[in-house]
């Protein structure tokens, strides 16, 4: 008989549905195929002229068509791209979970969704209209179209989710924090289920200019070796876009309705560096605390760790810090397999943690670790076991960690375990 509770009496939490819109295309199947093949979805940016920008490569959603993805003409016209992306991923996740809202107590179903930046396209358009045509010509829907919480708001309206409706912004840790907060709501009995995730429309002129002038972007013109986490040649991240969605439920709720459980969210760690606005604390002390907390909450130790789905942005400072953090957690010479999906889909900012949680969930469920696309020679300054080339078949993993780290010193770590009943 399945134990529905943790030893402390709180609820165990299951992942029962997932959805994705990524540079690999529409759907989780497209994402997992690209990730497991170690295939890069990075290419020259086509959306606008990149002449004069520090970086010219991006991981754009290929030929995105909102109408073909199930949105109405009104939704395609009115909603910002990051909201449209959220809807596409969430529609898949809700359908995958088989959650029938007509049979649910809607007040017990939460929505926790974030975006690192929100409606950049609307912001750029609104500013141009104000400058060129004056204040009376700015759209009356400018604010509700642009603001970051509108993905969570519109998702809750779409599905009738009347529990907690929360939007979290922690830069590149947003997606993981949203999944972690949804887990906590369910674990402590505030909700029976939740839709959680993140979305981003980060490939825009102002975003590319800002990150480029900050020195954060890879300036390479070789798509196959641009985003290359932990590689000796890494020089910055490649901007990606899209959305990742997960349906989480208490074990009681999931099993009572006969839901298929993909994996268990066994623990969550969240810490702050209190160090610097953009730079990670070099020793990784904050990340270590987050990882330890996530493992301990699930009843695991570092010796149980099957693999790490790293934040792995392909920046010099981040990758070195995250490698140092894993060594601190597991010891010198650790052979814990490490992967990063950012060589495949770029850095999806506020959506990254949700996308990576999906990949990590299937990794523990299937006993494999996907390769890190783009990485050829691991930097000696990153003394960890980065999986490259092809999938590593590990067999049963007790637990894995999915890390996200954001500007401002935000650290999030999700502990995901296979469903064992």
What is the CA–CA distance across the termini? 7 Å
Mean pLDDT, to the nearest integer, reads 97
- The number of distinct β-strands equals 16
- Secondary-structure-derived class: alpha/beta
What count of helical segments does DSSP give? 13
Considering DSSP H and I runs of 4 or more, what fraction of the residues is helical?
25-40%
Fraction in beta strands: 15-25%
| Tertiary shape | globular
Q: How is the main sheet built? A: 12 strands, mixed
- Rg for CA atoms: 20 Å
Query: Which series of helices and strands comes N to C?
Result: EEHEEHHEHHHEHEHEHEHEHEHHEEEEE
Which consecutive residue ranges, at least 5 long each, have pLDDT under 50?
none
């Amino acid at each position: 008989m399945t134990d529905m509770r943790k030893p402390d009496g709180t609820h165990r939490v299951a992942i029962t549905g997932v959805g994705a819109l990524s540079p690999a295309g529409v759907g989780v199947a497209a994402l997992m195929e690209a990730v497991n093949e170690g295939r890069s979805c990075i290419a020259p940016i086509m959306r606008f002229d990149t002449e004069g920008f520090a970086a010219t490569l991006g991981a754009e959603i290929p030929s995105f068509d909102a109408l073909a993805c199930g949105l109405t003409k009104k939704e395609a016209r009115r909603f910002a791209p990051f909201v449209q992306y959220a809807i596409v991923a969430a529609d898949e996740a809700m359908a995958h979970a088989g959650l029938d809202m007509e049979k649910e107590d809607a007040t017990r179903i939460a929505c926790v969704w974030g975006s690192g930046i929100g409606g950049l396209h609307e912001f750029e358009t609104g500013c141009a209209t104000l400058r060129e045509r004056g204040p009376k010509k700015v759209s009356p829907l400018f604010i509700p179209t642009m603001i970051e919480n509108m993905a969570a708001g519109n998702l809750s309206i779409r599905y009738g989710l009347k529990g907690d409706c929360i939007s979290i912004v922690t830069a590149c840790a947003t997606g993981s924090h949203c999944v972690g907060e949804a887990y906590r709501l369910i674990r402590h009995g505030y909700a029976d289920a939740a839709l959680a995730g993140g979305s981003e429309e980060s490939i825009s002129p102002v975003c590319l200019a800002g990150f480029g002038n900050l020195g954060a972007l890879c300036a390479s013109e070789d798509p196959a070796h641009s985003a290359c986490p932990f590689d000796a040649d890494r020089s910055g991240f490649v901007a990606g876009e899209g959305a990742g969605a997960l349906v989480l439920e208490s074990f009681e709720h999931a099993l009572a309705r006969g839901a298929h459980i993909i994996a268990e969210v066994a623990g969550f760690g969240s810490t702050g560096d209190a160090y610097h606005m953009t730079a990670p604390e070099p020793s990784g002390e904050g990340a270590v605390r987050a990882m330890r907390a996530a493992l301990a909450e699930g009843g695991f130790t570092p010796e149980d760790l099957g693999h790490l789905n790293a934040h792995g942005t392909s920046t010099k400072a981040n990758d070195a810090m995250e490698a140092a953090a894993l060594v601190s957690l597991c010891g010198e010479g650790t052979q814990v397999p490490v992967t990063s999906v950012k060589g495949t889909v770029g850095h999806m900012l506020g959506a990254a943690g949700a996308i990576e949680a999906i990949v990590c969930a299937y990794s523990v469920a299937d006993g494999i670790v996907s390769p890190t696309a783009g990485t050829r020679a691991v930097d000696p300054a990153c003394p960890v076991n980065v999986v490259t080339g092809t999938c590593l078949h590990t067999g049963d993993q007790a637990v894995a960690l999915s890390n996200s780290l954001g500007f401002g010193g935000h650290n999030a770590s999700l502990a995901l375990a296979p469903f064992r009943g």
